[in-house]
Design brief:
It is a single chain. This protein has 179 residues and is an alpha+beta fold. It has 2 domains: 2-86, no CATH class; 93-173, Alpha-Beta Plaits (2-Layer Sandwich). Helix content is 35%, strand content 25%. The protein is built from 5 helices and 6 strands. It has helices at 30-42, 63-70, 72-86, 104-119, 153-163, and strands spanning 13-16, 52-55, 93-101, 124-136, 139-148, 169-173. The strands form 2 sheets. A 4-stranded antiparallel sheet has the order 4-5-3-6. It has a two-stranded parallel sheet with strand order 1-2. Helix 1 (30-42) runs parallel beside helix 2, helix 2 packs antiparallel against helix 3 (72-86) and helix 4 packs antiparallel against helix 5 (153-163). The two termini are 28 Å apart.
Length: 179
C-alpha cells in the first residue's frame, strides 16, 4: 500500500516481509523490479521524522536487496554485469516464440524441432520450456527464447510460418515477459 506513491508524513517505520519473493519471478528483470520496489518503499519512511526500514527475507545477500542500502550505482553496476554475462539487453536482443498444441509430448517435440532449425542461423536459442501459463483451453504451451545481435526477420518469419500448422500454433513475441 505504501509503495503506491502515497505520502504519509508520520510514517517512521516500513517493514517488508519476504522481499526476496520478488526475485523468484521468471524474468530477467526480476532483480530490477525488486530493487525499484524496495527503494521506493524504504523511501516512504522518515520523510518528516527520522525513520527506518526493515527488510525480511531468506536471501538478503542478493545484490538487488543489498543495494537498497548501498545505493543505486552499486545496483546498476551489478545488474549490467549480470545482463552482460547472460547476454540480455543491451548486449543482445531477445524475443520469444510460443508453441502450443493439444498433445503435451508432441507439442514439446514440435518446439524442439523448431529450436534445431533456429540454432543453425547464428541465434542462441534457449528452451523449449513450459510457458508461465502452461495450459490454456486444452493447449499445452512451450516457449523458445532467442538471443541475437542481428537477425534476418524474413527468414525467421518464413520458418515460423512453416511450423505454424495444424494442430500446432506458433507465435512470435518481440519482447520477453509476455507469454
Amino acid at each position: 500500500m505504501i509503495a503506491k506513491g502515497l505520502d504519509f508524513p508520520k510514517v517512521t517505520l516500513v517493514g517488508v516481509l519476504m522481499a526476496d519473493l520478488l526475485l523468484k519471478v521468471p524474468s530477467y528483470r526480476a532483480s530490477e523490479n525488486c530493487y525499484m520496489l524496495l527503494a521506493q518503499v524504504t523511501g516512504r519512511s522518515g520523510r518528516s521524522l527520522p525513520g527506518e526500514a526493515i527488510i525480511q527475507g531468506y536471501n538478503l545477500d542478493h545484490y538487488a536487496i543489498k543495494s537498497v542500502s548501498e545505493g543505486y550505482d552499486n545496483f546498476y553496476r551489478e545488474a549490467l554485469y549480470n545482463r552482460k554475462l547472460s547476454s540480455y539487453l543491451p548486449f543482445k536482443n531477445t524475443s520469444q516464440i510460443l508453441v502450443s498444441g493439444m498433445n503435451f509430448l508432441k507439442t514439446y517435440q514440435h518446439a524442439f524441432m523448431l529450436k534445431k532449425m533456429l540454432s543453425g542461423q547464428s541465434i542462441d536459442v534457449l528452451g523449449p520450456t513450459q510457458a508461465i501459463i502452461k495450459k490454456i483451453k486444452d493447449h499445452y504451451r512451450f516457449t523458445l527464447t532467442i538471443k541475437y545481435e542481428d537477425i534476418n526477420y524474413k527468414k525467421l518469419f518464413e520458418l515460423i510460418k512453416s511450423f505454424d500448422q495444424d494442430p500446432y500454433q506458433v507465435r512470435y513475441y518481440p519482447t520477453l515477459d509476455i507469454v
